[in-house]
Every structure is written in structure tokens, then in C-alpha cells.
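Give me C-alpha cells for this 236-residue protein.
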Amino acid sequence: MIAGGLVSLNGQIVTELGTKADAERDHIRVNGKLLHGSERHVYLLMNKPKGYVTTVRDPERRPTVMDLLHGVGARVYPVGRLDYASEGLLLLTNDGDFANYLMKAASHVSKTYMVKVAGVPVSEKLNKLREGISISSDRGRRVRTAPAKIRVIRDSANPWYEVTLMEGRNRQIRRMFEEIGHHVEKIKRVRYGPLELDVHPGKFRKLTAEEVEKLRAFGSKTSAASTTFSTKRVKD
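Here you go.
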């Protein structure tokens, strides 16, 4: 093809065999068609504001988190979700394998939220949430939640709690507190595994290569620890 004059590099016909080019920077055309290199993987951390849905499109035409993305240079998709009224740390990527890995590892990766509730739950009810409680699911069945870590971070008539989960059922925190008679007024996710929320609402940043690897390692490490614990518990 080079000998036939069918290959051009940055607008110039290539005549010398062995000419080098950078597929990510140079414009290479073969028979007039531009070659596209493999898509570069992008990993984003966003601070999702309240009032946005975590989908690419919404049939109700509500704002989606995709409306907040500008200058990314790639089509990315949310990993998991935060509901319309919730806010905080959300991951997005175009790496399908990585997204699937995180979804599968979701039950082994800790997620921490700041939660404001109406009224003050008594300690006995909070202990039920810490130990695991039966809640309704999207399919109408009752399911039992895994143990949760809960601590008070602001005492008031409508207190704030730090809630850490090792699972991610839809509207789980809201349903947990509703089960003990308290409405959740605000939810903000502030940590996901080793990552902490560090951008302003509506903003996002790229994860570093080190952060991506830490996230992979965190999921693998906690998954292995969970398996070991489960096996030990069965033996005991």
C-alpha cells in the first residue's frame, strides 16, 4: 500500500518503507480513510449534585450526570448509581472490564455516606441497623442487609450520621432508616474504597493511574478477606 501511494502521514504521501508514526498523535490515512487508534481508557471521579439522575439518558427528561461532563474526549458511563435526591462521589469510565469488576466487587468495597435524618433514633434502633435489618427490595421481597458501621457526627434535632456499607442495594440507606421510623433528609457519599470526595458539586477530575490500581487492589484484598472470613465462620 505504501509502494502504491495509498498511505499518507499528516497529509503527506508516505514513500519510504519503515517510516515511523505515533498512532495517538499523527493522522494516518490509508486510501483516504483516517485510522483510529484504540480508545484510551478514562476514569473519572465526580461530585454528583442533588437533582441529577445517574444514567446516560432519562425517559422523564430530568438532568443526568452526563450533562455535567465537558472536555472529557471520550464516552464514559456511570459505575453504579446514586439516586436522584442523593449526592456525592460517583465514578465514571469507558473501561467496560473495570466497570464490571467494580460492580462485581461492590459487596466487598466499603462506601461511606453522610446521612441526615429526621428525628433522633434511639440507640436500640441504630444497633439494629449495625447488625443488619430486613428491608423491602425493588421486587417487593424482604431482604436482610449486611452489618453497617454507623456513628454520630453531628448531634441535633435532626442529626447527621456517618454510615459505611459493604453493599449497595438501591435506596438502601433510605429504606434502612425508614424501617426504624426515620425519614432520611440528605445523603452524600464521601468515600468509595480508597477514594475520597475532593471536588466541588457538579465538578469532576480524572483518577491517577495509582488511584486506579489502588481501587483494583482494594476490591481484590477486601474480597479475599471476606471469603476467608466466610470460610472460617462455616468451619467454626
